[in-house]
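Batch job 17 of 40 flagged for manual review because the log was empty.
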Amino acid sequence: MSIGATTPISVVTVGTSLPASSLEKLRTVVPTVNYYPKGDAPSEILAETQVYLSPRTGTPTHIEDIKAALPKLQHIQMPVAGAEKIVKNVAILKAMANGDAGFTVSTASGVHAVSIPQYIAATILALYLRLPKQILVARNEARWASGEDIAEGVTEPHDGNDTPYYVRSLRGKTVGFLGYGHIARAAARLLPAFGVNIIAANTSGDRRVDEGYMIPGTGDKEAALPSEMYSTSDEASLNAFLAKSDILVCSLPSTPASRGFLTKERFSMLPKEAVLINVGRGDLFTSEDLIWACDQPNGLWGAAVDVTDPEPLPEGHPLYKHHKVIVTPHLSGDCEDELALGAEIMAYNIQRLNEGKKPINIVDFGKGY
């Protein structure tokens, strides 16, 4: 796989929708920017293309032989952060079969460092304040709810009161980030304002420096914010991490190692009345195991899932109406400027290629992300 531009990048083809302002910015970086938002660039355009901003699935579906259709291709830029679709792209896999495709592929990892951390903070607060219950009583019953209404399902009194408090405080709690990439690092900057402690777990347990694209004012480049780091590949380290995570925030990609990672046994290791947020991929655990974890004595206080197993969640699935669960339809990252930020990453990677450097966010097809 080539690293750095073999010849200066002068022709880019955009095969997905972009704002006009983003196209103008790209044209300040590259002399020729072809725009085919439906992914239907003619063969003569593709033949001259050096960098291709692809649809979510990668190259256009009608292309079977990338090397024949795009002989000058040096890089494919994804407009999204997830790689699970492009790693299954038959044409790309065919081109890489001999070990040297002649081009690189990268994601737009980093574009969601503004939108999804907002979702994480919002849903933690919604669960701790039991906002869904308060909203539903007001909207569906058109009445002023009592504390007893909102505290339904809370079994233990707090601070000696006969009626339990329905609102929980974040102050003094520990937020554990399962996966410490762009999204987690940006969220880790926001949550300490509520007085929480931050810990994180990744494969190695090391404080890995983030060399990828970082939106100004976001992130944790040196991984300095967590008070402790843990390893998901070390069972004792993982167990210690889970046991400390009053709030578990999951942002893992879908890989063979992550699928089914959170089992009933691992749910049971979380502290009493923990909160779970999942913004990674739904196959991290089954919906049935999540319901089980919510229904256990002293089980989950609540959960918010923007991704599910299966996805989309079938109509009538019991997770929708579970009183402890917030289900959202995988829209936490669909925020204004998403595609514009993806174009910025593309421009940044073109600059790196022209400087003889490798692009950021390169997809490892062996790992699946």
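Reviewer: the log was empty due to a logging misconfiguration, but the result itself is present. The CA atoms of residues 156 and 247 lie 19 Å apart. Unflagging and moving on to job 18.
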